[in-house]
Write a structure and sequence with these properties.
Elements lengths: L3 H4 L2 E4 L15 H6 L1 H7 L3 E4 L27 H13 L3 E6 L9 H6 L13 E2 L22 E4 L4 E4 L14 H17 L3 E4 L20 H5 L2 H15 L6 E4 L6 H6 L11 E2 L11 H14 L8 E3 L8 H4 L4 H13 L3 E5 L58 H5 L5 H14 L1 H5 L1 E4 L7 E8 L2 E8 L5 E2 L8 E4 L12 E2 L3 E5 L1
Helix pairs in contact: 6-8, 12-14
The chain binds 1-deoxynojirimycin.
Length: 510
């Protein structure tokens, strides 16, 4: 029996950038509520909100200072309850972003932990002594960003704490059962309020190798520092908490670039660990049919062979938007939409991709991201054609993406051939067709170079999808006479397929 998180489509909202209603240049919960109807018209089933908890914002909310409240920048618990009710009233589920690997240095747990070596919360974080007074850290582990050691010297107790991300994000010690119990309570806090699940930030990093030894220079930090067995054990505990609620889900950010290993985090028996896990390998592929065919095959070998449900994602708040990655072509962005929305698995769309948004050009003086690379994809969403595009200020925290006066729901909503209209048609067709939202997938082998395609089947319901990633037009045989039910442009729909596929063009056939 399939569930909403398998059949449905999830839409990621980066709350800072969605819609500002207060005039401070930063999006808020009220602004999300204001645009829920856009999401209903689009046809998604759930929203995932990047972190909205109190935070000093050293990593824009991925540094949490209180897991059980809302940052005043976004609103308060009443505003959240209102948003949840409004979303549920429209049959939209709400997924929160749970950040369990690290807290903010401003979290009261860390404030206590760093205050003395014998504080009861000392062992809630990973403190180790190095050599000398702040001279040599405990080992050679490097932070993911910014570039530098993963250890920070803390003068009050003359010791080092581990931070796999910025120094403002100390890693929790998941070996400590009190930490696990406290983090389980944070899940219950939101589940009791009625949320439908969690996206789980860098969930594969929870347990570190207890030896804390040096890693070979140049080796993958994650492979070397992790204790996967312990992380799997903690995930089973986390699943135990989730399973005391009905119909909730979890999707893990398992940032391991090996799809088979990612699938391990769904448990050795289905239902034991995560419900879903992101598979980022496809996202790292260029616009190349052979590379995509390989990734689809790997995903089916890894997820399908173990009877697990895959996920598909092209863009999020950490990477250059796929339209920009694939060369800025709108045609290509249209064809790309067919990948997550018609492959077997749950699609995760990133706010703005339904408008064909590119990354914003962010001048150096406006950049805020501690990794230095992610401001462009976090640009504000324009809602109307005229500036300030439905924002309560003309000066949002980042500049709008290019062509904001054309690429917004107001302008695109009325245009039957806009990117937005294409996303709506694809989502409608996906919902209507059991083959597309729940069927099996079979990769097609005998296609011309440059074309990747697959057939989805559920009983009598069969859909074939063809995507031409090649440089020029391609002629595909074997499907003549089938009807084009969705195409990159409205004009091509409803016709009998003649086998001709323009470059950067995709079709769903029935
Ligand atoms: C992954 C998140 O997606 C990213 O935005 C964040 O910086 C890191 N985890 C650290 O929390």
């Amino acid at each position: 029996m399939s569930t909403w998180w398998q059949d449905g489509v999830v839409y990621q909202i980066y709350p800072r950038s969605f819609c500002d209603t207060t005039g401070n240049g930063i999006g808020d919960l009220e602004g999300i509520g204001r645009h829920l109807d856009h999401l209903v018209d689009l046809g998604v089933d759930a929203i995932w909100l990047s972190p909205i908890f109190p935070s000093p914002m050293a990593d824009h909310g991925y540094d949490v200072a209180d897991y059980c409240d809302i940052d005043p920048m976004f609103g308060d618990l009443d505003a959240f309850d209102r948003l949840l009710a409004e979303a549920h009233g429209r049959d939209l589920r709400v997924i929160l972003d749970w950040v369990p690997n690290h807290t903010s240095e401003a979290h009261p747990w860390f404030v206590e932990s760093r205050s003395s070596r014998d504080n009861p919360k000392r062992d809630w974080y990973l403190w180790h002594d190095g050599d000398g007074v702040g001279e040599v850290p405990p080992n050679n582990w490097r932070a993911v960003f910014p570039e530098g050691s993963a250890w920070k010297w803390d003068p009050p107790t003359e010791s080092w704490y581990l931070h796999l991300f910025t120094p403002e994000q100390p890693d929790l010690n998941w070996r400590n059962p009190e930490v696990r119990a406290a983090m389980g309570d944070t899940l219950r806090f939101w589940l009791d309020r009625g949320v439908d699940g969690f996206r789980m930030d860098v969930i594969h990093l929870l347990a570190k190798d207890p030896a804390f030894g040096d890693v070979e220079p140049g080796s993958s930090l994650f492979a070397a520092v992790l204790d996967a067995d312990a992380t799997h054990e903690y995930l089973r505990e986390i699943r135990g908490v989730l399973d005391t609620y009905d119909d909730v889900t979890s999707v893990g950010e398992v940032y391991i670039l090996d799809t088979h290993e990612v699938v391990d985090y769904l448990g050795s028996d289905a239902g034991e660990e995560l419900h879903l896990a992101f598979n980022f390998m496809p996202l790292h592929q260029p616009w190349d049919a052979e590379r995509w065919r390989t990734q689809i095959r790997i995903a089916e070998d890894a997820f399908g062979a173990r009877d697990r449900w895959p996920t598909w994602v092209l863009s999020n708040h950490d990477v250059v938007r796929h339209r920009s990655r694939y060369g800025e072509s709108e045609e290509r962005a249209r064809a790309a939409a067919f990948l997550p929305l018609t492959l077997r698995g749950t699609p995760f769309l990133y706010a703005g991709e339904e408008l064909g948004a590119s990354d914003a050009d962010v001048p150096p003086e406006m950049r805020q991201d501690p990794s230095g690379t992610r401001d462009g994809c976090r640009a504000p969403i324009p809602w109307t054609a005229e500036a300030p595009h439905g924002w309560a200020t003309a000066a949002p925290w980042l500049p709008f993406p290019p062509e904001a006066s054309l690429r917004n729901p107001e302008a695109e909503g009325d245009d039957v051939d806009s990117v937005l209209s294409l996303y709506r048609r694809l989502l409608r067709e996906r919902r209507a067709s059991a083959a597309l939202h729940a069927g099996s997938v079979e990769l097609l082998d005998d296609l011309p170079a440059g074309v990747v395609g697959w057939t989805r089947t559920a009983g009598d319901d069969v859909r074939t999808v063809l995507v031409n990633m090649g440089e020029g037009p391609a002629t595909v045989s074997g499907f003549d006479g089938q009807t084009v039910v969705v195409a990159g442009h409205l004009d091509d729909e409803g016709e009998a397929f003649d086998g001709l596929l323009r470059a950067d063009h995709a079709v769903v056939l029935a």
